[in-house]
Amino acid sequence: MILKFENLTGSLIIALIVCVLLLSKANTASAQDNPANNEIAEKTQPAASEKVLEPKTINDLYYKNIIPGITSEKDALKIMGGKFEKKRENEDKTISYIFDSKVPGYPNEFTVDSIGKVIHAAIVPAPGEKLNISAVEKILGKPDRHGFSHYAFFLRVHVFAKSGMVFICNETGDVHETQYFEKCDLPAFEKKFGKNFPEKSPYKY
Q: Is the overall model pTM greater than 0.90, yes or no?
């Protein structure tokens, strides 16, 4: 009787293991066939890694070699692909061309004067690309001054007047937007653009 009981117990254990394995397989198949589960799985996948830009010279900091004071309106439009979302005539008789940057709410833009020369550009990093102000300073040195942006309270401005560039960065120094203008000294920059980049915070906390 003891032998028969042991055989019966062994059979029950084997049967139980088989049932557990079959149930587990069924649940796995059900989960894979469930679109909601697939959607959750997709959302939990890690995002594609960003490309960290490592410029070597000042030319690497320009956007597609569009240089204010040098590049013509015709050449800039050709470089940008010729398709702009909007053309705006400004009060100072300059013309601005607005382009889709693929970053919602932040278009790329360049402005030309009455003789058809680019005098200003505002460019955001392409999606998936990241540039840090530390990489910029390795090329341009320390900024002429810092300041604040009217875009958002957490953004900070790094002005390189003699290089004709302003970098608007987040708190960790990642570039949110770069603005380009004709190279000048700091007083000339303050006269023309200073109010757009106040040295003191315009925000009330």
A: no
